[in-house]
Amino acid sequence: MTEFENVREALEWLYSIGKSEGNVTVDGRPATIPEIQDMYNNTIVNICDLLGMSDIYLEDQEG
Predict the structure, then answer these.
(1) CA 54 centroid distance within chain
(2) CA 44 to CA 57: how far, in whole Å?
(3) What is the pLDDT of residue 51?
(4) Which percentage of the chain shows pLDDT scores above 90?
(5) CA torsion through residues 39, 14, 33, 58, sign
(6) Contact at 8 Å (CB) between 17 and 33?
(7) Which phi and psi angles does 25 have, rounded to 5°?
(8) Are 45 and 15 in contact (CB under 8 A)?
(9) If you ran DSSP here, which 8-state letter would residue 62 be given?
(10) Strand partners of residue 26
(11) DSSP code per residue over 1-48
(12) pTM for the whole thing?
């Protein structure tokens, strides 16, 4: 998982993935939908941490 230094980097990465038109790769092969979902979720968790809002995803883990 990529750890971003700031929210801008994370959002730029998410935006680039969204604009990739199906050309997202993992280990040199096309990424599966679950892999892309995992990338998005990990980045959202990273953004939450950068903003001091880890409660957003921690509440989900408690339920």
Answers:
(1) 14
(2) 9
(3) 97
(4) 71
(5) positive
(6) no
(7) -120, 150
(8) no
(9) H
(10) 29
(11) -PPPSSHHHHHHHHHHHHTSTT--EETTEEPPHHHHHHHHHHHHHHHH
(12) 0.81
